[in-house]
């Protein structure tokens, strides 16, 4: 599960994504410099010719080659979502998975248009398939949000079939087909006027995505005022009307729901994803993609669930703090999430969620982490305002100073 949104604004685009994955799956945040072409490139299941790569920043599950989301030196950002379509992905031979396509698009694209052409060409050449969730041995197809400083695309796929429409103003995607007859580009098996929604799995539970889209779509569409990067951070941390979501739905009594904490209407599902014993948000990214080459590309990366994490400011393609690429760092934030969530609940053992206790624990975590995050964001803003962000040494000094402050706060919290 995941949520991705973008806001196209005068002179820039803001992009954000929550990556929702199995609870114990480590996700690493890594920077990669340019790579010369030649030789072979080993994706998750295929070996392809390697044309080289531009510099990229991406987050990936530790067992996967591909990215859940990322941004490259040309100010292109991409994130993907699991889609439920009428074609059973388990019947398709392993090929490229959605995360492969995110990384390949980022490694090669110079614009969102370019990324669309690259990804759909790769789909046509190599197909899509293969296990992408090691915990459940689950294969799935993907949708994508492709963004650059001037706009972007919503791209939805099912096997080798695909449809896409340009982003106008803003867009938000989640784990459901959102296109109908409004696509403007598509694979050859669609004719003008065809309804892309016919590819949707008729048994797909749409409440899982619709509840979160109710939160993300208004942020993406907002115009007066336009959302800021801090607004996007708040959206990625959204827990519903309570401080810790809206758990306690009648899921145990509803056939087909994956967990007893969920309700048929999507109750229990929040943008900052917490389904105990099932999945949680395990990494988040916000990127500001300015159109002017005189403005620096900025991103904010948060390992783990964003509610118990810190969005650390970075300046791609500069290196990120090396700690973000270490398994031990991710596990510290996972430990915080587990402390706040409370005991695991399953259908065999449906433990009620103690919202009051979780809310109290979350308040303690935010009291320690929020001042550090605000301090880092303010300092990064000051770098940009003063034009010091043009100085590689100043940028490097800031990035080097960021992690020790986060580390101290985590130690204070006992992780």
Outline of the structure:
With 415 residues, the protein is α+β, with helices and mostly antiparallel strands.
Structure, explained:
The protein contains 7 helices and 19 strands. With 415 residues, it is α+β, with helices and mostly antiparallel strands. The chain has one domain (2-412): Penicillin V Acylase, Chain A (4-Layer Sandwich). It has an 8-stranded antiparallel β-sheet, covered by helices on one side. Strands 1, 2, 14, 16, 17, 18 and 19 form a 7-stranded antiparallel β-sheet that branches. A two-stranded antiparallel ribbon has the order 4-5. It is globular and about 55 Å long. The model is unreliable at 243-255 (pLDDT under 50).
Write the layout of secondary structure elements.
Elements: E1 2-9, E2 12-22, E3 27-32, E4 40-42, E5 47-49, E6 56-61, E7 69-72, E8 77-83, H1 98-108, H2 112-126, E9 131-133, E10 138-139, E11 141-148, E12 151-158, E13 161-166, E14 170-173, E15 185-186, H3 207-221, H4 229-236, E16 274-275, E17 279-290, E18 298-303, E19 312-314, H5 327-341, H6 355-385, H7 392-412
Antiparallel strand pairs: 1-2, 1-14, 2-17, 3-6, 4-5, 6-7, 7-8, 8-11, 9-10, 11-12, 12-13, 13-15, 16-17, 17-18, 18-19
Helix pairs in contact: 1-2, 5-6, 6-7
